[in-house]
Amino acid sequence: MAKETTPKTSYRDTLKSADTEEHIDLAFYRPIGYAWACLARRLGVTPNAITVASIFLGIGAGIAFYYNELWINVIGMVLLVWANSFDSADGQLARMTKQYSRIGRILDGMAGDLWFATIYVAICLRENATSAFFMERPWLIWVIAVVTGICHAKQAAMADYYRQFHLYFLKGEDGSELESADNLKAKLSTLTWGGNFFQKLILTFYTGYTVNQEQMTPSMQELRRRLHADFPDGKIPQSFRDRFRALSLPLMKYTNILSFNWRCIALFASLFARMPWLYFAFELVVLNILLIYMVVRHERICKRLTAALEAGEFKH
User: Fold this and answer.
1) CA-angle at 83, arms to 6 and 284, nearest 5°
2) What tens digit of pLDDT does each residue of 264-291 get?
3) Residue in 152, 149, 155, 146 with CA at minimum distance from that of residue 292
4) Contacts of 246-252 spanning 24+ positions with Cβ under 8 A
5) Cβ 258 vs Cβ 287: under 8 Å
6) 291, 154 in Cβ contact below 8 A?
7) Which of these, 168, 221, 251, 278, is most buried using a 10 Å CB contact count?
8) In the Cβ-directed half-sphere of 300, how many Cα atoms lie within 13 Å?
9) Is the dihedral of CA 252, 279, 124, 216 positive or negative?
10) How far apart are CA 26 and CA 30, in angstroms?
11) How far is CA 282 from the centre of its chain?
């Protein structure tokens, strides 16, 4: 009798796509994440369990950044890198085992939010305890942190949205996690607070998150409506997919800069410089400029492609 074996999944199978993967991820986090994912699969650990573990590691990192001793900060840096390797592993494990879920995706996004919320609070408390400038104006660093946090949320949301939109045309609906606010609202209406409190609470926040993404991208939404009208069966011509990929691919590097790795580099540099407030300046100035540029460029691409569809350039 032939021995039954667990289906093998190669490292490459656990990646999203060559188009959207960041160079630091490919060189560092994805190989480590794959090792964690393989171990988790053998032990029967779920992707959501890995995500929860990453939350504790990220919060621990934030707490370590409160202290003015560099060696404690370095421990926090190690914890944050470890947390992000788990963040990579949960997605790779989900692709290995086909354990996809909307709750898992939402939980994954919340993990990063909790890491950085802790980091923001730690920086504020640290600056008010060690910086003469902020000690005289203790409210100022909190105002800066709140504004930075709002910008951070917009930056991360739009980077994720453009990445999923790119994957939608590259790999199809099954290869993307692109959502529709209307679909989420319809799902939300079927849930009750009494019988599905936690699920409805999470989906309420996620629906608001998706609504904000759509409000930031009116030309993209017009393109989606036009595609649905022209191709109601969802079979978008390959020629259109190829055109979109060619126009969108050069902008993927900006979505990657707005993601975790470059934030992490800037954060670590500010900690080594003993001026953690510089991290807020990086997000407020550098990343906001990139966000505006990325949104403008993507909106122009969508307007251009909508006009091409109206001119009848793409047919089945």
Assistant:
1) 135
2) 999 999 999 999 999 999 999 999 999 9
3) 155
4) 247/301, 247/304, 247/305, 248/162, 248/165, 248/166, 248/169, 248/298, 248/301, 249/19, 249/166, 251/162, 251/294, 251/297, 251/298, 251/301, 252/19, 252/20, 252/162, 252/163, 252/166
5) yes
6) yes
7) 168
8) 8
9) negative
10) 5
11) 18
> Beta-strand (E) ranges in 236-278?
none
Q: What is the pLDDT of residues 57-81, one digit of tens each?
A: 999 999 999 999 999 999 999 999 9
Query: Taking the CA of residue 212 as centre, how many other CA atoms within 13 Å lie in the half-sphere pointing to its CB?
Result: 16
Q: What is the DSSP string of 136-200?
A: HSHHHHHHHHHHHHHHHHHHHHHHHHHHHHHHHHHH-GGG-----HHHHHHHHHT--TTTSHHHH
Task: Give me the amino acid identity at 269.
Answer: A
Instruction: Note the maximum CA span of the chain.
Output: 78
Q: What is the pTM of this model?
A: 0.88
**Long-range pairs of 232-238 with CB within 8 A, sequence gap ≥ 24:** 234/173, 235/316, 236/169, 237/314, 237/315, 237/316
| Residue 148 token pair | 């930075």
Give the 3-state DSSP-derived string for 6-18, with helices as H, strands as E and coil as C. CCCCCCHHHCCCC
Q: What share of the chain is helix, strand, coil (3-state, %, to 5)?
A: 80, 0, 20
Q: Which two tokens stand for residue 286?
A: 């550098």
CA distances to 111, 127, 194, 239, 286 from 106, rounded to whole Å, are 9, 32, 21, 33, 27
Amino acid letter, residue 149: G
Residues 33 and 25: their CA atoms lie apart, in Å, by 9
For residues 122 and 65, the answer to whether their CB atoms sit within 8 Å is yes
Please report, rounded to a whole number, the percentage of residues in the chain having pLDDT higher than 70. Answer: 96
**Pair 20, 102: CB distance under 8 Å:** no
